[in-house]
Structures are given as structure tokens and as C-alpha cells.
Amino acid sequence: MSTAQLTSQILQQVSLITEDEGKLQRALKALKRITTPKPDPTEMTYDEFVNMVRKAEKGSLTEMLPDEDLTTFLRRQGYAL
Hints:
Helices cover 60% and strands 0% of the residues. It is mainly α. The protein has one domain (1-81). The longest helix has 15 residues, at 21-35.
């Protein structure tokens, strides 16, 4: 279904509830929830990134053992999978 068709259907449905304030409020609340951008947990400033890299450079190096798969390696590092 195209964007124009979807927009038309949404507007048609909204026109059906224009007389009911309660339904309009619920529709508005739902649209705001849908359109509110979610914060990106990976977003960081340049300084935060540089500090993270410097901290990682100071840390100890851990290598995978021969014939060790990624899941086993991560569990050995303390990650719960």
C-alpha cells in the first residue's frame, strides 16, 4: 500500500471520530507515541568516543582460545547470554 493510500485511510478514519473528543484525544495520544523519536543509546559526543577508546586502550587484551566459538568466549568474559 502506498503512502498516499495510507494517509488517505488515516484521514478517513479520523474524520469518523471528529465529533467524539475522547476518541480524538486517544488518537492524538497514540500518534504522539508513534511519532516520538526513541533516544539512540549508542549516540555519543566526540569527546565521549575518544575517552571510550582511550579507556579501551588501557585495558587488558583478551584473545579467543583456539577452537573457541564467540558464545563461549563472551561467557568466559562474564557476559550472560
